[in-house]
Structure to design on (520 residues):
């Protein structure tokens, strides 16, 4: 049985350690057969660094590492190229000065490794010499591989001025690639985010973006066939449907969805224990703060349709939450379609791990509930699952009463139905309930329909200004407009109408009533 490649991002170490290698050299072969310049965006821990290292070993002609792999007898190993590798994965850079120092160290290492020198003093000058002198010495055009190209920016997103300085420093480096185009055989940049070409790649309009190209959708990540072929011995006895529900579901436009590699390796290493491995390895604190600041309506996460322009729009000065969710792996492509003369995408949360863990983080961000969160989740799940609506109402009152007063200071959240709907959505989604926001009927639309087990809850929310209310206008609307009628008669299902009235003055749940719908 081969070893698991836990935390290994270099092909030689992996092969020398008798580790499993999921063969991605077919993708590499398709890219390198002619001079080209490529860009690929993928979430963290999806195998980008190992693929970059694989390209390096191919161009340097290390054929012995590829025995038994697709590329072994399909590439001219006698033709080698000078490879310049730039990697920003290590360390945390907090200033433009630190970035420039890091770049100089990286360039110096490459100069020494390739046996060339530069008498220039500027970063752009040194990089330019490195590319041209290496090509001249070896008699072959240079190959430039850049891993985690955006990390210095992403590490500083909460400090926009520093992030902007980092962007300018990287732009100064990457602009050399256009100038040295005649001395370059192959360029490959990869990272998490996709900054606009104007902001970071000025002049690099010739980069081919592979991010949502269907043929390369599974370049990173494991297909189910990869798991069965390479990890079969490690996955004996696994429930494949449950494994898929937890860790599969990622797609960048291809028909076949892939598993998160980090999750799979940790799942095996921890004795096939289902946990939030990938999510816990890097909590999306900036993302949560962005959603808080923009008061994002969380139920919208259930049905997002967007354009390629939005998926591409990532800039420090104007960060689109949907673009950020997609690029960081919290949303993925469900399907492509054409409308209004353009290509559009329907997005969804990829799997159970991301759905439950992300919503749990959003609960903390939207409510500031930490210690109380888990017990509230457990009680809510029990009530939803068993149809205990009286206790469900009591728990919801307790939930909103527990939200700290400071959550409503310096903002007008208490006035908005959308805030309360977002909190409810986050809690219910964290329980893996099926949720239909703005559930449309022929009489209008219910705010939230929540389904768990055999129970369906059709909910309407209202916000009133004062501290009292006559009756329950939310429940009245559900009943008068017969929102729940569409679910009547579903075999084995019990349907409830729930009206929730919130008070701006009390900043909480003022009135909650419900009724069980007749099944006839």
């Amino acid at each position: 049985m081969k070893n698991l490649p836990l935390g290994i991002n270099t092909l030689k170490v992996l092969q020398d350690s008798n580790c499993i290698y999921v063969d991605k050299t077919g993708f590499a072969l398709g890219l390198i057969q002619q001079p080209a310049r490529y860009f690929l965006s993928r979430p963290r821990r999806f195998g980008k660094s190992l693929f970059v290292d694989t390209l390096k070993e191919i161009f340097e002609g290390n054929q012995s590492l590829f025995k038994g792999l697709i590329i072994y007898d399909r590439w001219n190993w006698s033709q080698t190229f000078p490879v310049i590798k730039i990697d920003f994965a290590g360390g945390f850079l907090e200033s433009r000065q630190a970035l420039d120092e890091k770049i100089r160290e990286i360039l110096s290492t490459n100069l020494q490794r390739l046996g060339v020198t530069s008498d220039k003093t500027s970063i752009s000058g040194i990089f330019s010499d490195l590319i041209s002198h290496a090509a001249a010495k070896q008699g072959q055009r240079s190959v430039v591989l850049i891993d985690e190209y955006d990390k210095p920016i992403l590490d500083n997103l909460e400090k926009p001025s520093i992030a902007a300085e980092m962007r300018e420093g990287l732009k100064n480096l990457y602009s050399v690639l256009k100038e040295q185009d005649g001395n370059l055989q192959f360029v490959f940049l990869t990272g998490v985010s996709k900054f606009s070409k104007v902001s970071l790649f000025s002049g690099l309009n010739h980069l081919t973006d592979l991010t949502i190209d269907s043929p390369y959708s599974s370049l990173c990540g494991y297909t189910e066939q990869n798991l069965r072929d390479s990890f079969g011995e490690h996955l004996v006895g696994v429930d494949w449907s449950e494994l898929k529900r937890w860790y599969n579901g990622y797609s960048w436009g291809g028909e076949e969805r892939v598993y998160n590699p980090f999750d799979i390796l940790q799942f095996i290493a921890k004795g096939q224990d289902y946990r939030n491995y990938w999510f816990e390895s890097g909590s999306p604190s900036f993302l949560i703060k962005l959603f808080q600041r923009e008061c994002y309506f969380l139920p919208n996460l259930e049905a997002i349709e967007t354009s390629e322009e939005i998926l591409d729009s990532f800039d420090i000065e104007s960060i689109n939450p949907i673009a950020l969710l997609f690029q960081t792996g919290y949303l993925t492509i469900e399907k492509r379609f054409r409308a209004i003369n353009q290509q559009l995408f329907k997005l969804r949360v990829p799997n159970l791990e991301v759905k439950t863990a992300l919503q749990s983080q959003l609960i903390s961000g939207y409510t500031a509930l930490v210690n109380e969160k888990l017990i509230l989740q457990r009680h809510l799940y029990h009530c939803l699952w068993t149809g205990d609506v009286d206790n469900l109402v009591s728990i919801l009152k307790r939930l909103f009463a527990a939200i700290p007063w400071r959550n409503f200071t310096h903002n007008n959240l208490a006035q908005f139905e959308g805030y309360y709907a977002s909190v409810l959505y986050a809690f219910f989604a964290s329980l893996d309930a099926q949720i239909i926001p703005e559930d449309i009927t022929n009489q209008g639309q219910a705010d939230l329909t929540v389904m768990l087990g055999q129970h369906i809850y059709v909910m309407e929310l209202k916000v009133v200004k004062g501290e009292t209310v006559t009756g329950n206008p939310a429940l009245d609307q559900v009943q008068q407009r017969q929102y729940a009628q569409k679910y009547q008669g579903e075999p084995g299902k019990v349907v409830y109408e729930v009206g929730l009235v919130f008070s701006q003055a009390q900043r909480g749940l003022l009135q909650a009533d419900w009724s069980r719908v007749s099944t006839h």
In short: The longest strand covers residues 455-464. The chain has a mean pLDDT of 91.
